Amino acid sequence: MFNIKRYDVEEQSSDKNTSSNATLSAQERLIKLNARLNKNKPHKELQEKEENKNKDKTQQQQQQQQQQQSSSKHLRYDNNDSIETNPYKQKRAREQEDQHHLKKHGKKWEKREKELKDSDLVPNDVRLAMKAEAEAAEALARGILQPINSVPEPTAASAPSLKSTQQQQQQDNKEDEEMEKKEEEDKDITSEGQKQEAEGGMDDVAMDAALADIESALVPLPTFEVKEITAEEKERAKSMGIPDWLAHPIKIEPETNTPIDAPMFRLSSRLIKQCKKAGITECFAVQTAVIPVLMRARHLGDIRKAPGDLCVSAPTGSGKTLAYVLPIIEILSQRVVTRLRALVVLPTRDLCVQVKETFETFVKGTDLKIATSTGQNSFAHEQNILVGETYARPNGPKVLGGHSRVDILITTPGRLIDHIKSTPNFTLQHLRFLVIDEADRLLNQSFQDWLYHILTAIHPSPERKLLGIDGSENIQLKRDQYGFPIHDAIAPAFLPSFFRLPESDVEDPKALSVQKLLFSATLTRNPAKIASLQLSDPQYVAVQEGGLDGDEKQKYTTPAGLTEYMIVCESSEKPLMVLHLLYNRNVRSALCFTKSVESAHRLCKLIQLYEKTRTAPVSSSSLSTIPKDNKVDSEIKERSKGDESQGDSEPDDGNNDDDDDSSSSSSEDSDSEDENESSDDDDEEEEEEDGSEKSDVEMEDVETTTKSTDPFDSSSEIEVDPSISTTTTTATATMSAPPIVVAEYSSDLPKSKRQSILRAFNKGEIHLLICSDLISRGMDLSPVSVVINYDVPVYMKKYIHRVGRTARAGKTGTAYSLVEMQEARHFKEMVSKAGHWEKIHRMKIKDQETKELVPAYTKALAGLKEALVSSRAASRKGIHRRARK
Ligand SMILES: Nc1ncnc2c1ncn2[C@@H]1O[C@H](COP(=O)(O)OP(=O)(O)OP(=O)(O)O)[C@@H](O)[C@H]1O
Known about the structure:
The protein is of the alpha/beta class. Among the domains are: 244-300 and 307-500 and 509-543, Rossmann fold (3-Layer(aba) Sandwich), CATH 3.40.50.300; 553-615 and 737-871, Rossmann fold, CATH 3.40.50.300. The chain is built from 35 helices and 17 strands. Strand 15 (786-789), helix 32 (796-803) and strand 16 form a beta-alpha-beta unit. Helix 13 (285-295) runs parallel beside helix 14 (320-332), helix 14 (320-332) packs across helix 15 (349-363) and helix 24 crosses helix 35. Keywords: ATP-binding, Helicase, Hydrolase, Nucleotide-binding, RNA-binding.
């Protein structure tokens, strides 16, 4: 018969301490904790205690001897009356039997492993399998699991009826009560030490660990006030289909920092050391809120109550990554067998690389293995990394429960689905954590039904037995030499397929399911999207300014150190504005976002030409007239056809929205950074439709910089200022400025080039990095001090992520948005609706300020067409060369 009590024991053999601890009742734990706390009492008291202890020890030894004799007797004579009538003794006998079994089999496995150890003939995989088997044998020996086939199938006669279950429960309760009574009596007559021995002889180490465990369990979790929900608010959320938990998050002030070694985090000294080494002495607000919650259920093999899922919304640069990286490492570091237990899904390859680097920083000192799967490498190469060459072979060995060479996988959704479908022995059944970072972005991606596939792989339907990756029944459950299934081959989520688990409730165990963790600076509140995640017992944590009294109208919180400006200008003036920021305002370490890869390329070329030109003499001929048509070349004209709505008055910008980055959503995932704004912000649009009030935006306070002498005004031929139409012009201020290095960054570039650009930017060797939205989300480029929105985004979420590339981790930063005249109304509407209008300062740039830039700019503009043609030819050559290789 399945033994409920035994399920309290840890599944992982590695965790010896917790198994002993799990057998303690809450009352006992408190007694022991009190004993430990007494250690801190005054010296005299301690002395007395010490004396008593010594006395007790002698008594204890005597009593132990007696007990051992009596229990071994009971074991030998099963029919002995006393053991049958005394459940307390029964329990003890059972435990001793387990210990005996464990010793016996443990030794066997140790011996076998020793024999094969260091043998060159034994491949690593076999060693791993042996390790798993040893662990499984140990777990089975401890009686943690009983195979379903060892339990008679429920028949009409044998299946427990509700009544018989109730009877059984009553019986159990009675037994428990008796046991408790007996234990109470014991308490009076035995010393604490005797009691420990009687309870299975906890050694000092185990005791210390157990007590530490209890003590840390008693460290209260941080409490955050939750605003009371009014009936009206409840009704409103309900009418919009938003569940209560999502409509009313647990709010935390951004400044809620806590020392990294605070007991509530329960981080090991190893990890604290790593953090301090990395310059992290305090946990930021989001980490303060999230880490203790995740660390609450930190035992890997804990198959009791499944922990609830978390949705976390916190400003850009507020440290969301570490909020999941630290607890995942801490919890997984106790694992024995390598299994895929944490999966982090991200929207782009670059982000995967970044998050992997973060994991690698803190994983030092553990033997956890981390991998990325993004489609940058060949599929076969990734398969080899994930499951090993042998197991990845279609005709290779199929292991029930799969096989993994990594503990933590960081991946883009498309490539992950490919592995779920096509990599033999790759399985998500052992997952303990599923992290969806940049969650709102990912939830807008529906290609390949990635979420459905993941959720299916994690949660098999109750009818579906684990029959192997191909669903065929020919794969047998892996068993040990005694015929027991190897426990580690079965994930907690799949346990019910093989083992009869009790129905869940707080006390009774159930299979631990994966904990889903969602993170974003702009988390969706779209009920349909949230529902698609099948969250269990979720909580919504939001780091938000103003805490409970925070401005409800303020939809997203931006970093405290961020200063935002908008410059309203003609579209033709935008390049000049960028030059003004660079050369007159000394802007450096800046990211400049354009709306497309092509647009980024042209702007980059133009500024590079300007840089070349500004120190060279400017001939009057090149300045006599500026192209009548605002477009500098027919190529741009051609490219801009697709975007009529934006007008066609940009000198350097084709206005094409055919963003190359977005078009590449293949099964290889590309960088599904798709900068397709409409898809990115689907839910934002939906929320608008959900009845939130339309803001009443007035435009009078939007100051525009309308230049009287617009050198690129398409309506008239520009007269060149006489002062600069001389044969040589000296643009004094800009000429003397040190060289400025500008580069572009887009998905068009090969991986190695991208990496070298980021490295150079991080070292300060690139002053302005012009990019599409490839790096607008999640990327943590520490030196960014300025963000320029060359093309303002149409949706607020994108704005928040872009400007959030600066002012990260408590630093300061500035964002400039170049708002075209015709966009000004929309822009104001967008930010007002998000409750953000007050934060944006209007900035006027006077003609006088840009005057000196014009001559070299005009020349650069004239040379742009040629530069674009030659760069295009060069890039074609490069593509051919790469293809030939
Ligand atoms: N407790 C901390 N102390 C000091 N620095 C920290 C701490 N936590 C995180 N950081 C640093 O803050 C920076 C931003 O962190 P992270 O990238 O996790 O932010 P984020 O909230 O995920 O931002 P985004 O929403 O843009 O993805 C990183 O450089 C990280 O190393």
